[in-house]
Amino acid sequence: MMFRTGAALIVFFLLFFLETSLIGFLPEPLRFFPLLLACSVYAIQHVGTPVGFWWLVGEGFAFDFWKIGTVPYETLIGFCTGFVGIIVARHLFSNRSLYGVLGCATICYGVQQALHACFLWILSWRNDLFVSWSAYISFTIWQGILLVILLSICFFFARRIRFFFRHLSLVSTREDF
């Protein structure tokens, strides 16, 4: 149990720092890769481990802690996104098809971006904060496209990824939510 938690934390910090530092310096459309969201949804939906939920909550907490998020309360947004991901993965989509993984990811991404847009609207309304909605929509579209591409690639390497998760003891043979 302790090894599983440690391995999950190491993978989380690796993904988080990769997304916020390395990928953030890529040219315009490529820097929008939602690496941690894609890996979290993939872990929840296809692998069937709840560690993806905790990665989303952890990402929100890290964004709030270092104040690098788009809006305040990123932890709440991560919690809601992960919760919706678990519900959708368990009751709506099969984990055996690419369509199930992409459907779960699309719903999770939609929830995440809807919550971001609500918080941005509230902040712009209350604090006279200027929000470039065209830039936000462009960012959202690019990030959605890159999410679908990344999850399609992950689905192609499904056996290797599942082996990686089992090797790190992130998922057992009988994983329950």
Automatic annotation (TrEMBL):
It comes from the Bacteria. Keywords: Membrane, Transmembrane, Transmembrane helix. The chain crosses the membrane at residues 6-26, 33-56, 76-93, 100-123, 135-158. This is Rod shape-determining protein MreD. The lineage of its organism: Bacteria, Candidatus Uhriibacteriota.
